Q: What sequence folds into this?
């Protein structure tokens, strides 16, 4: 039983890593570990990116961007909700969704899809560049 749980967990972790690497493909400095990515900012600071299900379990609706100092810890954090930063293609005017979900061993956008996810990544990277 533990073996099956481990296989499922490893597949889920790989799905998160693949989704994140694909979304942030323009930012080669981020090293992804399932739901979290790490990027060095300078000699004293680093950034953690974390896909999170704020509000509803398993409905991943944005990324936390957390800035850490290697000595003193967390310096700043901000949640970038997809709903406020992504222009989506919706199936209908009534069915507007802004999240990613994990179901049937697959992590993908739920019904609605972003028109251009590069804009979202650019907003996160602009935020980081303002911290430098």
A:
């Amino acid at each position: 039983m533990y073996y099956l749980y481990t296989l499922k967990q490893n597949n889920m972790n790989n799905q998160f890593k693949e989704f994140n690497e694909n979304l942030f493909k323009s930012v080669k400095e981020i090293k992804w570990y399932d739901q979290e990515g790490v990027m060095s900012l300078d000699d004293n600071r680093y950034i953690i990116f974390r896909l999170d299900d704020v509000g509803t379990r398993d409905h991943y609706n944005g990324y936390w961007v957390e800035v850490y100092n290697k000595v003193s810890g967390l310096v700043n954090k901000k949640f970038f909700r997809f709903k406020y930063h992504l222009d989506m293609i919706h199936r209908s005017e009534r069915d507007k969704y802004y999240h990613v979900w994990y179901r049937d061993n697959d992590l993908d956008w739920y019904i609605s899809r972003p028109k251009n996810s590069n804009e979202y990544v650019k907003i996160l990277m602009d935020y980081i560049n303002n911290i430098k």
Observations:
- The first strand starts at residue 31 and ends at 33.
- The longest helix spans residues 2-23.
- The chain has one domain: 2-131.
